[in-house]
Amino acid sequence: MKMTMRQMEGLPPDPSKTLTVGLQGVRRVSLRVLPTGAKSWIWRCQYKKKDCWITMAPYGQWNLSQIEAEAARLAGLLKRGEDPRLPEERPSTLPTLDEIWPSFKSSYFREFNLSEAYATSFEEQWNLHIQPKIGHLRLDRVNSARAGDILDPLLNRGCKTTFNHLRSHLSVLYKWCDIRYPDAMTKNWVSGRKHQATDVKERFLSDEELRAFGAAWIKSKSRLKYNVMFCLLTGSRAGIFHKWDPAWIQNGSLKIKKGTKWVKHARYILLPKQVQCLLPHLVTPETTDHIGNSVDSLISLAKIKGPVGTHIFRKTFTSHGVMLEIHPNIVDSLVNHKGSKLVQAYQQWETAKLLPFAEQIVDHLVELMGIDLN
């Protein structure tokens, strides 16, 4: 049903339901009448296959010319593929994120005495993801839709580790700004975007995925790609890079002594010849988050469906070892599984007997990936 503005003047509310009456002569514009008697002009459309109801103004505030002008503006946004729900751009005197960034760094990092590693990680994420997309925006122009432009592509690519880090950084930045500019801030930028669990079902990289990963590793310019390959070819955890020490390397194996920070028990990682070729290129990262980010970039470059982390590399190492018909207890020993009874007996005293099995697995994985580390 449609009416003219004159006919709508005496339109009574219905106590049992909300009334919606179209405005004759203006496409997509309707008058919404709540059971309480409140009236407002709304504009209806579909954006990305979802129904949108946009409140234009309270009834009585605009005349017909103003309603037609606003409807034309919203229709123009929709035609250009822009979200008509975003607020209309108006002059703002508030600072941009680029302008507040130096002040944020100097006060927030110092106030909470944050570690240098965290501060470095935060600044890297700012330079790589946040600043290029929303750094130029003034504080009252940043909203959840703008944050979604940063976060959603990462989630679609399966980069859940980077998604969670950025979500956390954006939330911290929002809260800092909200304390200083409370009247300007919209709803929390990451509201509705939950932390993504990175634990996945038991899986390992298939032969086809390893070939794609090898090609991506060759093309990659990441400074941590050698660390990532080390984790894959030894089945080791990324945590060993927390306190990397070249003195651990002894006679073709990596011996991490008991009592080392983050290490509860002594660990012995065998180093086949091709793995030893990686050692000169290993970089000590500030945090293992950096290794996770490098894994995400390699997985994305290889177009492998994620999420994939260093723990998936451990599963890949062990699974391919079993497929090569190596005894499961020996494979457990190679990756320091807690449940293996052979960890101490074999890896402390029988390194020479275990090394050929490690060589066999590494040669198999390297061949599948199509790379030659020698």
Q: Enumerate the spans where pLDDT stays under 50 for 5 or more consecutive residues.
A: 339-349
Major β-sheet profile: 5 strands, mixed
Shape, principal axes of CA atoms: elongated
How many separate domains make up the residues?
3
DSSP helix fraction: 40-55%
The top level CATH class name of the largest domain: Mainly Alpha
Topology as a string of helices (H) and strands (E): EHEEEEHHHHHHHEEEHHHHHH
CATH architecture of the largest domain: Orthogonal Bundle
Number of helices: 14
Q: Could you tell me how far the N terminus lies from the C terminus, measured between alpha carbons in angstroms?
A: 78 Å
Q: What Rg is obtained from the alpha carbons, in whole angstroms?
A: 29 Å
Overall structural class, as computed from helix and strand content, comes to alpha+beta
Explain what this protein looks like in three dimensions:
The structure is a single chain. The chain has 374 residues and is α+β, with helices and mostly antiparallel strands. It has 3 domains: 2-79, 2-Layer Sandwich (Double Stranded RNA Binding Domain), CATH 3.30.160; 97-180; 207-369, hpI Integrase, Chain A (Orthogonal Bundle). It is 48% helix and 11% strand. The chain has 14 helices and 8 strands. It has a 5-stranded mixed beta sheet. A hairpin with a 2-residue loop joins strand 6 and strand 7. Helix 4 (116-134) packs across helix 5, helix 7 crosses helix 10 (288-302) and helix 8 (225-234) packs parallel to helix 11. The radius of gyration is 29 Å and the shape is elongated. It starts with a strand and ends in a 5-residue tail after the last helix. Mean pLDDT is 81; it is low at 339-349.
